[in-house]
Design a protein that fits this description.
The protein is an alpha/beta fold. 24% of the residues lie in helices and 27% in strands. It has one domain: Rossmann fold (3-Layer(aba) Sandwich). The chain is built from 9 helices and 15 strands. Strands 3-4-1-2-6-5-9-10-11-14-15 form an 11-stranded mixed β-sheet, with helices on both faces. The chain has a two-stranded antiparallel ribbon with strand order 7-8. Helix 2 packs across helix 9 and helix 4 packs across helix 5.
């Protein structure tokens, strides 16, 4: 029944994908118990967006970021099962970091779960918003430590991969959402350090490979280029889409530029795969902002950037997770808001001599 909702009309009032939004969006926050590899219990706070019949209202996630959701409304069960995206934020960020995508996906019939990871430093949290007492010096030093790490020194960051898998498992087991999720249509994604987190479930860390995952969405993840070896990236066999901001191409992460790291990831993962560079974009163009002061204006994307990122992301997920060609050929062409667009839609056939 759900498929009939995805390709409804040729034209829509929605700017995000060029298609009608089929559902109102429900929004709730869960606190999930998580047991670490050291047998300690921690809490994972998870933001969840989902289809509902309830009437939405304007909702402020924090700062200038607003949405239209039905808070804590019951999910709409009649159109189940729904595909699931589990999304991982960048280091020190929040499960709310990419609301521009998560809310829109739910309007198209997805369930989206995005946790607050237990990073050492956190600038924003789902429940409490912006951390005004953040130790900025400590935060920057710890981020620099991560960027100077490599595949041989990543063990202390594997907690993120385990947390993302725990969210996936607990969503599937959830009394509220478990029976609504299509277990054959699951994707993961992430921004920056969250891209490393998502790829860790897609084959780069063999012991943590999750064969339930059908596709991976990657936003500006230099960490994936220096925390995984090339042969490990080559073990990613699910479809992938990688975005980079135009203005961050020459920025260094350790000894390499973001462009070099991005090319390294794209070159090694298996097709089908896509690589997009967003015009005028920086590393934070894939984030919503949670502060309105002038100093934070570069810590989030513009509505124009959100529109193109969202449109290609959703077209990718619908094609490679749902098997639906709902994007009016979006994936077949380069938008003017992209300065680079590479795609390798399928594995080349083996040559027969």
């Amino acid at each position: 029944m759900l498929n009939s909702f995805f390709c409804i009309a040729a034209r829509s009032e929605s700017a995000s994908t060029g298609h009608d939004k089929a559902f109102n969006v429900g929004y709730t926050v869960l606190d999930l118990a998580y047991r670490t590899s050291k047998n300690k219990t921690k809490t994972l706070t998870v933001a969840v967006w989902y289809p509902t019949n309830a009437a939405p209202a304007r909702y402020n996630y924090g700062g200038p970021t607003n949405g239209m959701v039905a808070l804590d409304a019951p999910p709409y069960p009649a159109a189940r099962p729904y595909p699931l995206l589990v999304f991982s934020h960048g280091y020190g960020g929040s499960g709310l970091s990419s609301v521009f995508l998560t809310e829109d996906l739910a309007a198209r019939g997805w369930i989206v779960a995005a946790p607050d990871h237990n990073d050492k430093y956190s600038a924003v949290r789902i429940r409490t918003g912006r951390n005004k007492d953040l130790d900025r010096t400590g935060f920057l030093l710890d981020a620099e430590k991560i960027t100077n790490s490599d595949a041989d020194h990543r063990d202390e960051y594997l907690y993120r991969i385990d947390e993302l898998k725990s969210v996936l498992n607990q969503m599937l087991a959830s009394e509220q959402f478990g029976k609504l999720i299509d277990r054959e249509r699951i994707a993961v994604g992430g921004h920056s350090f969250g891209g490393f987190t998502a790829l860790g479930l897609c084959g780069t860390v063999e012991a943590r490979r999750d064969n339930r995952i059908k596709a991976v969405l990657l936003y500006s993840t230099g960490a994936s280029g220096y925390l995984f070896q090339e042969n490990e990236l080559g073990e990613v066999k699910v479809p992938s889409m990688y975005f980079l901001g135009e203005r961050e191409r020459d920025q260094k992460r350790g000894k390499s530029t973001m462009e070099e790291l991005s090319n390294r990831v794209y070159r090694n993962v298996a097709p089908p795969k896509y690589f997009l560079v967003v015009k005028g974009g920086n590393h934070f163009s894939f984030n919503n902002r949670f502060a309105a002061d002038p100093g934070s204006r570069f810590l989030g994307g513009s509505e124009e950037q959100f529109e193109v990122i969202r449109r290609y992301s959703i077209a990718f997920l619908e094609k490679h997770v749902l098997g639906q060609e709902c994007g009016n050929g979006i994936l077949e062409q380069q938008d003017p808001l992209l300065t680079r667009y590479l795609r390798e839609p399928r594995q080349a056939a083996a040559r027969k001599d």
